[in-house]
Every structure is written in structure tokens, then in C-alpha cells.
Amino acid sequence: MNIVVNGYKTFVATGGQVFDNTKPTVVLVHGSSLDHRCWALQSRWFAFHGYSVFAPDLPGHSLSDGEPLESIEGMGSWLVEALDSVNVNSIHLVGHSMGFLVALEAANLLKEERLITLTAVASALSIPVNEELINTAKSSSSAAAELMLKWGFGPNAQVGISAVPGMQPIAIGRQIMSDNPLAVDLIACQNYTNGKLKADKLNCPSSVIIATEDKMTPSKFGLELASSLNADISEIGSSGHMLPIESPKRTLDAIKSFIIRHTL
What we know:
Number of helices: 12
Number of domains: 1
Structural class: alpha/beta
Oligomer: single chain
Largest sheet: 8 strands, mixed
CATH architecture: 3-Layer(aba) Sandwich
Shape: globular
């Protein structure tokens, strides 16, 4: 569906069902230079099992208009404005990588009665970024995306093994990332330092999903995040940082088992 946020058209994937704000809503926030497509399996399952799905393309990404936002704080505020525009009141927030930092900021802005759960997928309290990668992204998003695809997927994906018949996860990542504002997203991650402060303020049920082969946010940082949130921990083996694309079924299982337990 298309909505308008701050005067700009925003695309929101709803999992193949008409959006209904009276249902508990699973909000899926993509990571750097990605979009709603990384949540294809997860969004469809929730949409057909009693939930509404709200998986936006952030401003300036893929099907959403506007300039890309330059800070995690700005993205968090934007996400709350987007949710307010469709009157969502029962929210399960899920974010992958940078998307979790955005969700963390949004969680601190939402009223306690609106936020039901918070889930991090392959993320941390902060996400430092290699300066070489940022410089590469400034000159070529596609070249930087190629580097991230090498680092972001586990060994099985690197040799062509796929959880989705007929589709190669690295090729999916390449298609999404090459034309999106990767440098802006990476710089926003590099500059974000409020994660610990914001995590310590929250007391909603939380979950952290860790990938054992994650080279971009190694598991020790996911465990640190889980400690700050007093969160449940799920571990997905033989997978890298791009969990929603690389291991979609196992990622869905980890997300849904937690959310179902906390659905009224």
C-alpha cells in the first residue's frame, strides 16, 4: 500500500493482505540499503495468521519517495509518524541490523501501551562501519554492496546454497542494494551512539536473534544487546548477517515463536 508521510509517498508492504489497523501489527524495518523485499516470507506468514503487516521502504529507498534520512534518530521519528498516519495501536517492532537501531529509537517514542514487543535480528547496540566501505559507497553503491554481500552472507550462501528454491540470496541482495542510498545509511549507523541509553530505558518483552556466522555484527555484540534489553536469545547456525534473506524460514520461526507468546 502507499501512504503519505511528511508529504512524500511511502510504500509499505502488507504481506499480501489488506492492512487492518485493528489487528496486532508486526512492523518490519529493513537494514542498510535494503527494502521491504528482505521480509518477503516473514511478512506473508504474519499477514495470513491473524496479524497486520507494516514493512515500509524507508524514505529514498526503492518504492518510497523523499530524500534518505541522515540519522538513526530521524529514521526512528519518521517510523513513528508513519505508524501514526495509519493509526496503529498494537505494535510488534522487528528490525534487521540498522533497522533495529531505527526500531530502538521508535520504541522510545511510542507510548508504552502501544508497544507490545521488540525484536532485533542480527543487530547490536551500535554498528561501527569500516571507513573504506563508507568511502566506496560514496562513489558507488553497487561496488560497496558487493563488498557487503561477501561479508554479509554465511559460507553456505557463498557457494550457492539457497533456502528458497530457484532463488539465490546473494543475487536478491545485489538487486535490492545496488540502487539504494547505502552511503547515507552506513554513515547514519557510524554516527549512532545512543543504543545503550535507549535500550536501558525499555522494559517491554524483547528478543534478540543472532547469526553464528555474522561477520558484520558478531554474536558477542548481539549478546551484549540482549543483556541490556533483558531479552530472549535465539541463535541461527550456519548463517551470516543477512538472516531475513539467507535463512528466511528459521528467521521467521524465531520471530513468530516470540511474538505469538506475547499476543493477547
